[in-house]
Amino acid sequence: MLEINILTLIYLIASVTFIIGLKMLSHPASARKGNLVAAFGMGLAIVGTIFLYRDDEGNKLHNYGWIFGGLLIGGIVGTLAAKKVKMTAMPEMVSLFNGMGGACAALISMIEFGHFAKMGYLDKIVQSYEAGEVIQDAVLTRPVPIETLLTIFAGLVIGTVSFAGSMIAWGKLNGKIKDFSFKGQHIFNLVMLTAVLALSAYLIVVVATVEPRPDPNLDNVVPKDLGSMPLVLFYATFGLAMIYGIMFVMPIGGADMPVVISLLNSFTGVAAACGGFLYDNNVMLTGGILVGAAGTLLTILMCKAMNRSLKNVLIGSFGNSNKPASGG
Amino acid sequence: MESVFNWIAINQQMIYIVILMVFVGIEVIGRVPSVLHTPLMSGANAIHGVVIIGAIIVMGKAESDNYVALILGFLAVVLGTLNVVGGFVVTDRMLEMFKNKKAQK
């Protein structure tokens, strides 16, 4: 139990460093130090999670080789890329890293959903006792709670849109991708977004309302076989969200890219917060919502500094400015 | 309707965090000068890299015979680390440039 308590304290410290870091980042004199403060908190949270995390049943994490391998590769590549990049190419680098964060959030959702789809939903082995003796094991299959599914889908859709959009913004800033729009793009985008939301809603309802069914004989009867349908539709949702993210940024002019990157930045914040909901993890929740809120305000401030309205910037798209708020 | 109330009661701690953080996020950067917009965006970008913690958890929980989860999880850890490390280093370099410019003037 001690480990969990230490980890809770670490998460608390990390959350505070994020807030202080952001505060310091918004004053010229303390900005550089603020970045270091937040980085320190992040490092603490990462190390703490690796060594002290316990799940509900008290199990430690495993696959340490994979974790350290990933951290090492990401760390080296990230440092080199960030050190090598030309000063003028900084904003596109930010966009690239932002896209990585979005993709990370989407991948987490994917793995978690794949988990549920593979396991035949939440199986709980319930033992029935009679006179103190175990007489029979029973498997009670419960559907996945609807709020878990909601956060998984929110993480997937927001993360994917952020990833795809950031990649396009990155390509535009380094001149590889030209502005592109066609007649009826507004309608096309609207249809895309509706399709993504409708598919998500349909899947959430289908998966969340699978009939719970006790299986007293342990015959391994699958409750109501949804087959591969949920997974196929899940990846279809992912694909559509990707297309939406691309089409959302495509028509926006290169000069407006910083504003768009800031907006996508706050999207990724919300996607990270979804992970916080999913794992009941307060540091992810705090960090994600903090960035979601600060990023949205920063987007508006940047628009103001350029003497433009957000609506004007996003004219290739439509009222997306309120998305971070509703996603959280 | 009752289930909604129940949900709020069970998750009230999280709901409080979300509401308070929205206000903190807005207040904390409220008076940022426009020269700091880009570094602040970059710093915030690094902070949402906290999603790496979710990636570590999902990776650490994956069964060692579930290759799809292992590969996707590994990818998530790499991408999340890129976001965190790259984000903080880029922000630091931006602010370094900022300082040099000031010193030259």
From TrEMBL, chain B:
> Which reaction(s) are listed as its catalytic activity?
NAD(+) + NADPH + H(+)(in) = NADH + NADP(+) + H(+)(out)
The EC number of this protein is 7.1.1.1
**TM regions (residue ranges):** 14-32, 44-62, 68-91
> In what residue span(s) does the NAD(P) transhydrogenase alpha subunit C-terminal domain sit?
15-99
Q: Which UniProt keywords apply?
A: Cell inner membrane, Cell membrane, Membrane, NAD, NADP, Translocase, Transmembrane, Transmembrane helix
Q: How does it sit in the membrane?
A: Multi-pass membrane protein
Name the GO cellular-component terms: plasma membrane
Q: Where in the cell is it found?
A: Cell inner membrane
**What's one Pfam family the UniProt record gives for this protein?**
PNTB_4TM
GO MF terms here are: NADP binding; proton-translocating NAD(P)+ transhydrogenase activity
A Gene Ontology biological process in which this protein takes part is: NADPH regeneration
Question: What is the documented function of this protein?
Answer: The transhydrogenation between NADH and NADP is coupled to respiration and ATP hydrolysis and functions as a proton pump across the membrane.
For this entry, the protein name equals proton-translocating NAD(P)(+) transhydrogenase
User: What is the scientific name of the source organism?
Assistant: Pseudobacter ginsenosidimutans
